[in-house]
């Protein structure tokens, strides 16, 4: 008699519903991983800045006079007032509370009457900087000063994206679509990271873009790479020049753990997802759409509308139902469908995600 096979079960419900787990993720996982901040097009000129939030921390990105993009915690080192709000351009950073003034490098420049402080050395005061990487124009930050570079986390992703989107370094955001979801961020990530549900729930995506029987998702470092053959390219709602390059007729996606994904549609059309957890029960998903040099495009705007009305809308209902179900006393985590051959009808990618999630929760 063969030994019983040990099944792989889904995470316990409290991983998605317990506020203490969410707080631990903010203090641990989300503060130790590469997070999307914004696009370099938002800080084109020296002094351009924008604010954003990561893991409950208020930060801002700014382009210096040396053309470097830096990110800082958005807090004055004097008495903790926030320095900037929203977006703008500044020759120097002046705190609205007591007018302590910082260079664009974060170094303290001056403060009213600070010369009266005996022994004070302004060179010892600087805004607290965080790690920044510009990944094909996309700005990522990591609150962990010792974090390994993105190419270590996501090996090969940078070069692969450049091959699939030859003009990626010229792209600029054309449109952001904001999608509030009443679910835990991990529920939304899991939904994105498997296509076991696609044929039943996403008819437009499953019949008009991908070829489900060829769909697969495999890990590479902390990247989940989605690949598939495409079908019905002759019935796409926008023109595709298949002779343009080797990947013009392909779809692929690179999910960068934990909260960002690059997605390339046929025709080398790049769009992105980035998730911003709000609390244990809410996440905001932003869909980004891009064009070369930011030139307006009716095609891309129509795609954004179509995507919001089909796949996105379908997913909202799915993930919000799951979140409600996770609070049911009747829920007992069932086994994941792990097919050794992988493919579209397998949840092997969820097994990988759950490993990362368990490690994050245990190590928080």
Describe the protein's architecture and organization.
The protein is an alpha+beta fold. It folds into 2 domains: 35-142, 3-layer Sandwich (Rieske Iron-sulfur Protein); 153-363, Naphthalene 1,2-dioxygenase Alpha Subunit, Chain A, domain 1. Helices cover 24% and strands 28% of the residues. It contains 9 helices and 17 strands. The chain has helices spanning 14-17, 19-27, 150-153, 157-164, 185-192, 198-201, 203-208, 298-326, 348-363; strands at 35-39, 48-54, 57-63, 69-73, 87-89, 93-94, 101-102, 108-110, 129-135, 138-142, 171-181, 216-220, 223-228, 251-256, 260-265, 269-279, 282-292. It has a 7-stranded antiparallel β-sheet, with no helix packed on it. Strands 11-17-16-15-14-13-12 form a 7-stranded antiparallel β-sheet, sandwiched between helices. A 3-stranded antiparallel β-sheet has the order 6-7-8, with no helix packed on it. The mean pLDDT is 91.
Number of helical segments?
9
Total strands: the figure is: 17
Biggest sheet, strands in spatial order?
1-10-9-4-3-2-5
The main β sheet shows up as: 7 strands, antiparallel
Structural class of the secondary elements? Answer: alpha+beta
User: Which H/E pattern describes the elements?
Assistant: HHEEEEEEEEEEHHEHHHEEEEEEHH
Beta-strand content estimate: 25-35%
- What do we call the CATH homologous superfamily of the largest domain? Naphthalene 1,2-dioxygenase Alpha Subunit, Chain A, domain 1
């Amino acid at each position: 008699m063969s030994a019983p096979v040990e099944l792989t079960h889904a995470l316990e419900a409290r991983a998605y519903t317990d506020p203490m787990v969410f707080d631990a993720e903010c203090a641990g996982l989300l503060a130790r991983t590469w997070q999307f901040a914004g696009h370099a097009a938002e800080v084109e000129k020296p002094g351009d800045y924008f604010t954003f939030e990561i893991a409950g921390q208020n930060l801002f990105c700014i382009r210096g006079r040396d053309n470097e993009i830096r990110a800082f915690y958005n807090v004055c080192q004097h008495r903790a007032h926030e320095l900037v709000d929203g977006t703008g351009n500044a020759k120097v950073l002046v705190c609205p509370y007591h007018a302590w003034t910082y260079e664009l490098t974060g170094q303290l420049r001056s403060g009213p009457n600070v010369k009266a402080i005996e022994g004070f050395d302004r060179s010892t005061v600087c805004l607290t900087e965080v790690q920044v990487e510009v990944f094909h124009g996309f700005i990522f930050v990591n609150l962990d000063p010792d974090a390994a570079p993105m190419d270590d986390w996501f090996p090969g992703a940078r070069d692969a994206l450049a091959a699939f989107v030859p003009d990626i370094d010229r792209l600029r955001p054309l449109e952001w679509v904001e999608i509030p979801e009443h679910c835990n961020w991990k529920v939304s990530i899991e939904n994105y990271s498997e296509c076991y549900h696609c044929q039943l729930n996403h008819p437009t995506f499953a019949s008009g873009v991908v070829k489900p029987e060829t769909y697969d998702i495999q890990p590479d470092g902390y990247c989940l790479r989605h690949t598939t053959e495409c079908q019905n390219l002759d019935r796409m709602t926008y023109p595709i020049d298949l002779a343009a390059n080797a990947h013009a007729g392909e779809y692929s996606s690179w999910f960068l753990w934990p909260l960002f994904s690059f997605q390339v549609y046929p025709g080398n059309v790049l769009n992105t997802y980035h998730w911003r957890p709000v609390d244990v029960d809410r996440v905001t998903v932003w869909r980004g759409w891009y064009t070369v040099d930011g030139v307006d495009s009716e095609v891309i705007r129509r795609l954004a509308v179509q995507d919001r009305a089909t796949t996105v809308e379908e997913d909202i209902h799915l993930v919000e139902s799951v979140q409600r179900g996770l609070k049911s006393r009747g829920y007992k985590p069932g086994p994941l469908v792990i097919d050794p051959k992988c493919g579209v009808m397998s949840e092997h990618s969820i097994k990988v995600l759950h490993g990362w999630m368990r490690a994050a929760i245990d190590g928080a």
